[in-house]
Specification:
The protein is an alpha/beta fold. It contains twelve helices and 15 strands. The protein folds into two domains: about 130 residues, Aspartate Aminotransferase, domain 1 (Alpha-Beta Complex), CATH 3.90.1150; about 250 residues, 3-Layer(aba) Sandwich (Aspartate Aminotransferase, domain 2), CATH 3.40.640. It is globular. The protein binds pyridoxal-5'-phosphate.
Length: about 425
Amino acid sequence: MTTITRDDFLRMDANDPLANFRDEFFLPKGGIYLNGNSLGAMPHAAAERAKCVIEHEWAEGLIGSMNTAGWYDMPSALGRKIAPLLGAKPNEVVLTDSTGVNLFKVLSAALKIQPERRVIVMQGSNFPTNNYMAQGLIANLGRGYSIRFAEADDMMDAIDQDVAAICITHVHYKTGHILDMASITERAHAVGAAAVWDLCHSAGAMPVDLNGCNVDFAVACTYKYINAGPGAPAILFAAERHHGKYFQPLTGWFGHRAPFDFDRDYEPIGDIRQMLSGTPPTVSLSLAEIGIDILLRADMDAIREKSMRMTDLFIELVEDRCGKFGFELVSPRDAKHRGSQVSFDKDDGYPLVRALHERGVLCDFRAPSNVRFGFAPLYLRYVDVWDAVEVLYDILATGSWKASQFQVRSAVT
Ligand SMILES: *Cc1c(COP(=O)(O)O)cnc(C)c1O
């Protein structure tokens, strides 16, 4: 039995160096938002910014805002801002398109580095869009390309001399397991393969050092731990050493050397902007900037420390209070190897998640039996960890989750 009490959690909040950030976010009243790993919360400042972009920059500034409001340069300007959070140089990052589309572009570029090789190493258990995008790419390329699926335990063995590129996710979306970016990238380079990393569950949640790990290309979404807003443009990183040499096939005019010369033929610009395909989604990018600015004011080491502590406490409490109800930890037990989320395997997880929603504890279900709790350190309190487990315990102890209304599946789980 654990001897820790709710008061201990309140004390941790009183001593939390990140505590003030919570006030900057709109959060459900009386609820506990453990879905920040799916969609980050809305910063209050985003609403004002959206109003300004729409009513001032768009309505009044019209097309002139491309220049006067900085719309034109926004994908690179925000890339420069966010680069330090990723261990990247300011000229190596843009914000554009979706994670999946960016993955298509960088994987295409990566495969060209070793044009004679035909194998891509990926994780079969990865978030599906990454694999779907790669499958679409190689179906289009033809010429014998194939994907070799590997998981954490056989990853190193899968990376051999046949591999053109690896395309791996840093923090697993279901288990939260962190892969060692430095050693896997080193292994890829040792056999001459390019290393593409997906940082969807690490960007904004923990320190990331792309250049320290020698990564070639990377992508990440911004609407999870960066709180950039639903569908916000994603991060794309290309190491400077590849600039001017890489090819990406979505050769739109924003990647052209001089878009406003309106030349007939495509000529790549040769820097990170070559990864852009077209007119940037200005409203979305403007909101993204709010989330980025908040994050830049926070200490990333403090974020990581709080995240590890919160997830440690959550695991301890759930196992102590709810272990007897058949919860099995899927996430790594050692916080060093765990992202900012905790997943449990639970039979009949879906109705349980629905019942938690009804009680204000928002978490998610990932088929077939994964109950996933995300911890966004910028706006969650330690006491939320305690309270969420209390609700979970109550639902399990009373069996209230077995009610028939919780069995019906929604389209988005
Ligand atoms: C969230 C997530 C995505 C999202 O891709 P979209 O193109 O934004 O839909 C992709 N990959 C991983 C690993 C993710 O966790």
